[in-house]
Amino acid sequence: QSDAIVSTLFKGVKDRAMADQLRTTLDQAMYCLYAPPSKKSKLKHLVDHSVPNIALRWDRCMSPYQYLRPEKLPEYDDFKSNSILSETVLFFKRIVALIPEQFNLQGRNRSVKEYLTSGPDFDFPKFSKIPQKDRPLLDVLYLLADYYFKNNEFTTALEYYRYDLCFNQDRVDSWFPLALSLVNVLEQKLNETYKDPASGKVLELCDDLISRIMVDSDVIMKCYARCHLLSPKNSMICIESANFAYTMHSFCTRQLDILDNMEENLKLKVKRRIPRYLDYASDYYEKAFKLMEAHD
Question: Whole-angstrom Cα distance, residue 85 to residue 75?
């Protein structure tokens, strides 16, 4: 019955009263079958019939997923209201836990991580194809990433964006917020590291931490490179990538100014990056300006 109702709702019901009745019926069916977390507290019309729920299986996930997802997949710059609801998150995580082992989610994720931390000459990993009937359901990963990103939970968001890229390597709506999430996490590190909580004075960084910041920067720049490839006329991507490059230019310049005892190889690496970051920022600020000018 729930499959038929979902199908009818997706086709569109012109009569509003009938559509509301179908939703009420499906809410009750979902609650009795799977007891989605927090549903009863949010929807007062639900009745607890004291019946045992059935086990949620991968082959049973499509209908509840279709009902709970937004009608249109939200884009990275859409309003928060277009994302999934907070009470949907735990149910979608139950679906993620059921992703079949043969899809090799964790193995794919390790390969994506290795790609991001490898040099610029490495190509995105190639994965085996997923059956077409299962592909729409895997968007649950993207929807969770989008939810956490729009709620400023960037560490969790970037994990789910990486998962989504395991199956949708050309989705710029994952690459761009992944880059933004990584930037946010890195900036938090810098802010926490620079100031002494007691005195508020700026502290010097150790060589090891500076090296790790350089590695994090390379990952972010690789994400932005992918964004430029997939969406070359996006002025927002140009501006954000230029902003990050300029931030790193300032960071590297400051380290050379305040640190006298930096290891020589690291000092040379930091020194070489300063003009590269500045040139990158200048190029993409200029490109953004031209794109906006052409748009006007």
Answer: 16
| CA 245 to the chain's CA centroid | 21
Per this entry, what is the length of the chain?
296
Closest to 251 measured CA to CA, from 295, 193, 294, 197: 193
Q: How far is CA 164 from the centre of its chain?
A: 8
Burial class (CB in 10 A: 0-12, 13-18, 19+), 217: buried
* pLDDT digits (tens), the chain, 296 positions: 455 544 544 445 455 666 666 666 667 666 665 665 444 445 556 666 566 566 788 988 888 898 889 989 999 999 999 999 888 898 899 999 999 999 999 999 999 999 999 877 789 999 999 999 999 999 999 999 999 999 999 999 999 999 999 999 999 999 999 999 999 999 987 776 666 667 766 667 888 889 999 999 999 999 999 999 999 999 999 999 999 999 999 999 998 888 778 899 999 999 999 999 999 999 999 999 999 998 86
What DSSP designation does 81 have?
G
Please state, in angstroms and rounded to a whole number, the distance separating the CA atoms of residues 20 and 22.
Answer: 5
Other beta carbons less than 10 A from residue 241's beta carbon: 29
Closest CA to 10 of 76, 93, 66: 66
Cβ-based neighbour number of residue 239 at 10 Å: 17
